[in-house]
Design a protein that fits this description.
By secondary structure, the chain is mainly alpha-helical. It has 2 domains: 62 residues; 215 residues, MetI-like fold, CATH 1.10.3720. Helices cover 73% and strands 3% of the residues. The protein is built from 15 helices and 2 strands. It has a two-stranded antiparallel ribbon with strand order 1-2. A hairpin with a 1-residue loop joins β1 and β2. The radius of gyration is 24 Å and the shape is globular. It starts with a helix and ends with a helix. The relative contact order is 0.10.
Length: 336
């Protein structure tokens, strides 16, 4: 009987396993196989890990870079441990995580410098741009979506209509909306974004045509390297990413809010909790699995983002919007 139940279970999951294998695992494996050969439309000679050596450049630098992230994980462990010790020792334990974070930053910077000096500059810069794109879109779209979901979860008139309106950007064709945003963020003074900013005496800016960092254009800071931040062109594309996924995240947060027992809020209200305390101590902790899921999916999505970036990028941006997926496509397209 137990064997029959196991066979029945395997039979039910076999279609999903087949789909994941054919459309997920096989392409990944075949891409790795291609990377081990000199590939120009047709397979060439076997070159081993030469492509990876060309991209990374310095394996010691890569190990140092990875060690920096290990130190960040160590700092988090120390910080988390501080919540479990006696209250009078807590500040001291938390303070111990600060030098670890500082050392981690220095180690990451040193390792990255070695990789950038010896590796493929275009590819490594695309990783930095992808990180800019991820840090610019994911926290904002998650935060805005959470606020919108919390508002819509209240019994307000037209709730279903607002849900539909917020979800529309996610299901609208990407190329069409990217072209619209390309017009909105054009460098002309008559573009929509420049006209809106002119009301408060700001601008005009070149937006998608501006390769300089936004910290220099808007704030006037003259920073170099990673801390200069994303270009104005990339900031324009970040706005598009936020606009697209806020609605989707809002709908998922609404589903999560619906699963929180109402009795918890009622008990807290009886104890005198105000709206902020309800949100801080009940809503946020119980939504943490949903927040983690959306953050993970969004971060993965930034590495897969391609269509809207490809449509919105301009030659004048000088490659400052080319994320990893765009750079990989350009490399393959030029090589073949």
């Amino acid at each position: 009987m137990a064997i029959q139940e196991q066979l029945t279970g395997y039979l039910f999951i076999s279609p999903a396993v087949l789909l994941i294998t054919v459309f997920g695992l096989f392409p990944i494996g075949y891409a790795f196989y291609m990377s081990l050969h000199r590939w120009r439309v047709r397979r060439g000679g076997f070159i081993g890990i030469a492509n990876y050596e060309k991209a990374i450049g310095d394996w010691v630098g890569a190990l140092i870079f990875a060690a920096g992230f290990a130190l960040i994980a160590l700092a988090y462990i120390v910080w988390d441990h501080a919540t479990k010790v006696e209250e009078e020792r807590r500040p001291l334990v938390k303070l111990a995580a600060v030098p670890v974070l500082v050392i981690a930053g220095l180690v990451i910077s040193h390792g990255w410098g070695r990789m950038l000096a010896a590796g493929d500059e275009d590819f490594l810069n695309s990783l930095r741009i992808t990180l800019y794109y991820a840090m610019g879109t994911v926290p904002i779209e998650i935060g805005v979506a959470l606020v919108l979901a919390y508002i819509l979860f209240q019994k307000i008139r037209g709730q279903e209509l607002f849900r539909m309106i917020y979800f529309l950007p996610y299901i609208t064709p990407v190329v069409a909306t990217a072209v619209v945003f390309r017009t909105i963020f054009s460098p002309r003074e008559t573009s929509l974004i420049n006209q809106v900013l002119s009301i408060v005496g700001i601008g005009p800016y070149k937006w998608l045509f501006e390769p300089r960092p936004f910290t220099q254009v808007i704030l006037g800071w003259d920073l170099d390297g990673f801390w200069a931040g994303p270009s104005m062109a990339l900031v324009s594309i970040i706005f598009y990413g936020i606009w697209t996924y806020v609605g989707y995240n809002t709908v998922i947060f609404l589903a999560g809010l619906g699963s929180i027992p109402r009795e918890l809020y009622e008990a807290a209200e009886i104890d005198g909790a105000n709206n902020w305390q309800l949100f801080r101590h009940i809503t946020l902790p119980l939504l943490s699995p949903v927040t983690f899921y959306l953050s993970l999916i969004a971060f993965i999505g930034t590495f897969k983002a391609f269509n809207h970036i490809y449509v919105m990028r301009m030659p004048s941006a000088q490659g400052t919007v080319d994320t990893a997926s765009v750079t990989i496509f350009d490399t393959f397209y030029k090589a073949n």
